[in-house]
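Model the whole thing, not chain by chain.
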Amino acid sequence: MSLDDPTLVVRAREGDVRAFEALARRHQAALYRTAVRVTGDRAEAEDALQEALLDAWRHLDRFRGDAAFSTWMYRLVTNRCVAALRRRRAVPAADAGDDVAAPDSPERAALLDLELAALGRAVQDLPDDLRVCWVLRELEGLGYGEIAEITGAGETAVRGRIHRARVRLAGVMRAWK
Amino acid sequence: MTEAEIAPLACGRDAALVWDRAEAGLPLDAHGRSCPHCSAAYAEARRLDAAVHRMAATPVPVPEQTLEAVLGRVLEAARNTRPPEPLRLDSPLGPNRLARTAATAVLRALVDAMDGVRARSCRIEQPGPDPAIDVALTVAARFGLDLVSATARVRQTVVAMGEQALGLPLRRVDIEVVDLWEA
């Protein structure tokens, strides 16, 4: 029997760890995928996912049922990602381990697709706010309204960010071709 | 230009709209087909979109140990917070205690096993000196279900089987239907 998110959220809020486990299991793939694309680093993405899920457990009482649970989780995980990126940049010695676009990673070799690698690098070069909106729209397929809820930016601002990200990426890809 | 503004194309069209059309796989309208600016933006969008689609389709499997690690930390956090007062059970050999989360899990499972209803919130109070409990349940029901007989069924089941399963007399059972789901 599969229970819907609102049911699991209420149960988890009342201390049911198994209900929380079901929620985490259901949403972890999309959240991790998003975190990898936003941070460009699998280890950092895994940390962000873990922290976001713990944030969710601790603050379930703050989750208002008027938005979808997935929307709330996207917000928690993208916040964790952006915080991790800021920390990474604040430490100049730390090597930004960009293993999504690492030159000789098995993933890259398996892709055998230089265009995709170039796009990956271009995505990582976007400013954080543009990249978060672009990833949610283009890779997760979310609508402008939901992205506005996730990021806390207005829908018009979200639309502007996504468009600027697209134009930048198209520019980079044009030069690469 | 403010952050939100999008520079229009040279023909005056909203560039983001042209881009959205390309991504959605919709053809250009009559103006767009004959306009070099719209056509160029559309073609560029389609080119980028092909690579973006491949990127979106690339699987990114979650490391296997992630969920386990999270749940370990959740359980640790749960252990470190003071649990709610356990329920008192009468026993001729002395007082026993029952964790509330265990009792609510039992009652929810009774409701879940019934056709067309799912338990959501389950709160148990034990107000008096005697061990009798008051239960407040919220449930979601399948759309189209006769709610009067369904809630009567839930109450009957919870009273009869709850008492048996928990060893506690149920003094009061409140049931509120808070949501409906489409079968």
